[in-house]
Write a structure and sequence with these properties.
2 copies of one chain form a homodimer. Chain A has 445 residues and is mainly alpha-helical. Chain A has 3 domains: 119 residues, MgtE N-terminal fold; 102 residues, CBS-domain (Roll), CATH 3.10.580.10; 172 residues, Tetracycline Repressor, domain 2 (Orthogonal Bundle). Helices cover 65% and strands 5% of the residues of chain A. Chain A is built from 21 helices and 5 strands. A 3-stranded mixed sheet of chain A has the order 1-2-3. In chain A, strands 4-5 form a two-stranded antiparallel sheet. In chain A, β2 and β3 form a beta hairpin. Chains A and B meet through α12, α13, α14, α15 and α16 of A and α12, α13, α14, α15 and α16 of B.
Chain lengths: 445, 445
């Protein structure tokens, strides 16, 4: 169908049974991402043994392709520093910096000391790994603005050893200031004696080294760029970010968004302690809000004492409010994230959600009223109570599901993080309160 | 910082006040995505007026860049068929097919009839838009396996008019069977008289036209490809998908996943009727499960009658179970989506979640026990009841948050769609039942 078929389990088994020669032989035929999967499926000890056996040009690529969660750096740290340095030297500078960046300062220094390309990696390590500087490579194709096409081609031939893939040729002046780009196509299809200046395209779209990685991904996606130049404040070309660096960013950010929405901070990890640490704070905050909601019921305990059957309805009304609120929230959070809510449109979004809440409230309210009517003797008034409470709570759900993320966004807080707790608190408090209030007024007189 | 600064509101205002000449003049300086934003911010009538005024080479790109939600096809349909055809003819065949694919058959036929490149667009329209065939363009760079480097370069020059961007040169045999790829770099850096066969790289990674778009995106991300060849079952090269087509797919799929997780089927839309239609079914299913949970309370109504204060605790325990279950669910769903749960690892994932649930249960259980102890006279036993119920329910939450998505995944159902409803039903039923059971046994004797 797509990738060449290979049997990851069989490859892993070769390592486990010590048939290293055969493992290495077969590893030559694998794509780096596939070999990375094999390594990821091994225990730490087996992985170190496998990496020791592999030639550095294979192990380096595979380690660079391993998912962040697997901490390829630890494997590197378990090797002799010279061997680790040999592996790192095989990598593009950005991948090298990513791997080394995972390590503690002492191990870092040991490996860095053995690197041939230490200067480049050192430079990249200075940038926050979640910025354009942290994503970029310094290896790029650049030619001078005074070159002819023939000279540019010569320069590209000269550099082609060092630069693995390129999608654009950058044109700089004598101070290395970025003045434009040259489409590769132009270079291939133009007469050799023409000056490259003639084919120069403006390089309007560029990023600063401290730009957040999510923003870099957005710019590249928006303008359909395979690579984007990174320039310092003076306009000097210092690196480039390629589309494949950004693919990983999008995957990471998607994970982060979904986890946040589910009330989990931090990364995916199979470590129990890390999991508790990333989830317990959120649960404790939720507990606090649960007590707020509970206090609404406590304050009306006499209603429950006189009318115990109402207790079971509290969960139905509050729960449905929570569900409807989460729906409104998911839609609004995603609209905000995609930049689909323009300034001045907030009111329309909120009104829409109110109307949707009212319509869904009427449908569900009619249903619960009917159920109450049919299952309780003299259930007409009870039906009125739960039906009205459902309509009211689903309107509140729609409104809070839209208002809260929009407010948080305006306050520059990521609405994905904190919205759901406010929304469900609202729907719980309001749902409980409304059922008990209506029950007191309509049923206990 | 990144994109050239431009004032979308000012541009839109030019259209609204009828200053079309100035609008068109300024539009020439905008990137297509920026012009698309301006069009998206206009009303339908204004947008049609703007598109009428723009030259087709500008309006076509901007319409192609408009977000799916804005239905650029409608604007196209409002134009005279000849003008619409002129605009569509400016587009790459894949963008043309996407735009035309939105329209009803009659309008489609009117526009198709006026197209110069009708055959290509017709061919692409035959594929499901969410497959490789729907994403691909038929415009690509290909050379014959018998060519020399010089002949290949000549062929590329000839085709460079028609092919907008290319990242790979495909090599085919005389029957158009894909035999390999030629890195652009090789072509630029090799002697003209060498045969291209010498530099051929294997094209192992290829996709079938009916492969789902999400799978296409995964393959390209995994192997860091800027473009991937689409081949028919016989091995004939029929198109290519480029990274920028796939960026949009990732964005769409992220939206879909988050919405599904929030209980919303369908797409983002600002239409109230569409919103109700996409949310009401989910709410009705939730209502059904809420009645299941309610029946647990109804069955124990005598406990509530004799001990009304327990009613307020029901929501606390069930709610916290729902939160913890959603956390476990978000983590497991994401791990499954990223392919991080290998065969045979399911048991370890479930055990981990059980342990995390137990630990979080102990922390929260101790807290609620303390609160019960401090707020009720003789609250020690009540504390025991709610503390034990919390521990038990958070263990159930962890287990069901892991087991349910893993089971659904094994049954080939997308766990993002249906998991949360099962998890919260479990935590509600179990939470209510446990509190009431423990209260009966420990408090009512």
């Amino acid at each position: 169908m797509s990738a060449p078929p290979f049997d990851a389990a069989a490859m892993a088994e070769l390592v486990r049974t010590g048939r290293m020669a055969l493992f290495v032989e077969r590893a030559h035929d694998l794509e780096p991402a596939d070999l990375a999967d094999v390594l990821a499926s091994l225990d730490e000890d087996e992985r170190v043994a496998a990496v020791r056996a592999l030639p550095p040009e294979l192990s380096s690529q595979a380690l660079a392709e391993m998912p962040v969660e697997e901490h390829a750096g630890e494997t590197l740290a378990a090797l002799a520093p010279e061997q680790a340095a040999e592996i790192v030297d095989e990598l593009e500078d950005d991948d090298a910096a990513d791997l080394i960046g995972e390590l503690d300062p002492v191990t870092q220094e040991h490996i860095l000391a053995g690197l041939e390309h230490r200067a480049e990696v050192d430079q990249l390590l200075r940038y926050d790994e979640k910025t354009a500087g942290g994503l970029m490579t310094t290896h790029l194709m650049k030619v001078r603005d005074t070159d002819s096409v023939a000279e540019a081609l010569e320069e590209i031939r000269r550099r082609s050893e060092e630069v693995e893939d390129f999608y654009q040729i950058f044109v700089v002046d004598r101070r290395d200031i970025l003045v434009g780009t040259l489409p590769l196509k132009q270079l291939v299809t133009s007469a050799p004696d023409r000056p490259v200046r003639e084919f120069l395209e403006e390089a309007d779209i560029r990023v600063a080294p401290d730009l957040d990685q999510e923003e870099v991904a957005r710019v590249m996606a928006r303008y359909n760029l395979a690579s984007v130049p990174v320039v310092n404040p003076a306009g000097r070309l210092i690196g480039r970010v390629t589309f494949d660096d950004v693919t990983d960013v999008v995957e990471q950010e998607t994970t982060e968004d979904l986890l946040r929405f589910g009330g989990v901070s931090g990364e995916l990890s199979s470590d129990v302690v890390a999991a508790v640490r990333s989830r317990l704070p959120w649960l404790l905050i939720n507990l606090l809000t649960a007590f707020v909601a509970k206090s609404v019921i406590d304050a009306q305990q006499d209603v429950i004492g006189r009318l115990p059957l109402i207790a079971a309805w509290l969960g139905v009304i509050a729960g449905m409010g929570g569900n409807a609120g989460t729906q409104a929230l998911a839609v609004t959070v995603r609209r905000v994230a995609l930049g689909l809510v323009a300034a001045g449109e907030a009111r329309r979004v909120i009104v829409n959600e109110l109307v949707v809440g009212a319509l869904n409230g009427l449908a569900n309210g009619a249903l619960v009223a009917a159920v109450a009517l049919l299952t309780h003797t003299g259930g007409a008034t009870l039906g009125l109570v739960v039906g009205l409470a459902m309509v009211g709570n689903l309107i509140v759900a729609g409104a809070s599901g839209a208002v809260i993320p929009l407010l948080l966004h305006r306050m520059r807080i990521d609405p994905a993080v904190a919205s759901s707790i406010f929304v469900t608190t609202f729907t719980d408090v309001f749902g409980f309160g409304l059922v008990l209030f209506l029950a007191r007024v309509l049923l206990l007189h």
